Amino acid sequence: MMTQKNFCWKKESRLLSGDTLDLKGPREEIVYLPCIYRNTGIEKPDYLATVDVNPESPTYCQVIHRLPTPNLKDELHHSGWNTCSSCFSDTSKKRNRLILPSLISSRIYIVDVGTDPRAPKFHKIVEPTEVFWKCNSAHLHTSHCLASGEVMISTMGDPAGNGKGGFILLDGETFEVKGCWQQPGNEAPFGYDFWYQPRHNVMISTEWGTPKVLAYGFNPNDIKAGNYGKCLHVWDWTTHSRIQTLDLGEEGAIPLEVRFLHNPDATEGFVGCALNSNVFRFFKTKNGQWAAEKVISVPSKKVKGWCLPEMPGLITDILLSLDDRYLYFSNWLHGDIRQYDITDTKHPKLVGQVFLGGSIVNDRPVIVLEDIELKSQPAPRVVKGKRVQGGPQMIQLSLDGKRLYVTTSLFSAWDKQFYPDLVKEGSVMLQVDVDTENGGLQLNENFLVDFGKEPGGPVLAHEVRYPGGDCSSDIWL
């Protein structure tokens, strides 16, 4: 392992000095996105798209390669890497395999992105039966590489679709399923995302809900029935045991994406709670226990013409800049992305906001009756002649913090329910320019990747991933 104060990414040095990271990474030239056909009415397999994001390239803003899976209805979702070579001095290890789990089928695709990064190909496919038999787990979500050379993937359920928050381990070389990471019988009621901080011997995991319930859409009655989570789970990183559960209550219902600060000495981070649109800060207390407090709240809007009398923002994705100065999140229903200065982590300060579609645009049936934040409903967003359907959802920040990439699909069944025009017309990828000095967000009007014009028909593009690692994939040791 490298010394405590040295961090590398794609063999580029980053030095930690106090709380400041000196970021020295190349500008992104291509990105990978899973594209989903499940619930669109198009009977075609999902695929991994490679998009050119180099403004000097003749294929800028174009999908330059598509890698379709050999199966239907996988629901590709999030991805991760095969090795934490960025945390080691072992130059023989490379990030040349993208781990691509399936949320619905529980199949795992191992993608070779090293031989030709611009034209990935399959290296191996792990069938769901191997996950079922060895782990009695299913519905795979987040993938992280470990310092041990293994790959860990969080699970949301069991093979029958019941809630089960556990973790499976893959061998980092053969990619065979080795078994479960957690101690037997120590699973959480629900699963979703996770982030570990090995210097403090801790991992935090989150909860979405019961897979067989949420897989076909959202019903508010399922909240009352206990089919959605509201807890953070604290795990001992060495013993693989769940040692504490933080119940966030109604205000913390459906805690999704979780992020520790990137500084590996930090004992705090943030989680975005979707249902009531709150951000909680979690932290280690003086007595060694963990606690959480609400630090950001997005007020719901009183509306008519919608399925409920109040519309939450629905925080669906959250990330931190590599220097731990800014926190970003998306409000999928309200349609805005927000930037907060978290220099004081207990008191985040809103410094940037931009609206990119959403459910409250001023030419749609929803009428906002009461809004304590906005004086008027935002206008629809049109980029290069394309109207943005849906709202901002997955976000990914460039290494220098100056470009924020945004896609508009959340999950195919929920896309179909809340934004039927998004399913008909396909999602988009946008780019937001970031003021890294004073804060501020502005849409780049010259950047658009229109997934409504794909050869196989309109498709739902989800998470953005850079070759070699990014703000939401790297964990430093």
UniProtKB/TrEMBL annotation:
Key words, A-Z: Acetylation, Cytoplasm, Membrane, Nucleus, Oxidoreductase, Protein transport, Selenium, Transport
Listed InterPro entries: Se-bd (IPR008826), WD40/YVTN_repeat-like_dom_sf (IPR015943)
Protein localization: Nucleus; Cytoplasm, Cytosol; Membrane
GO cellular component: cytosol; membrane; nucleus
GO molecular function: methanethiol oxidase activity; selenium binding
Topology of this chain in the membrane: Peripheral membrane protein
Keyword Transmembrane helix tagged: no
E.C. no: 1.8.3.4
Protein family membership: Belongs to the selenium-binding protein family.
Protein name: Methanethiol oxidase
Species name: Erpetoichthys calabaricus
Gene it is expressed from: SELENBP1
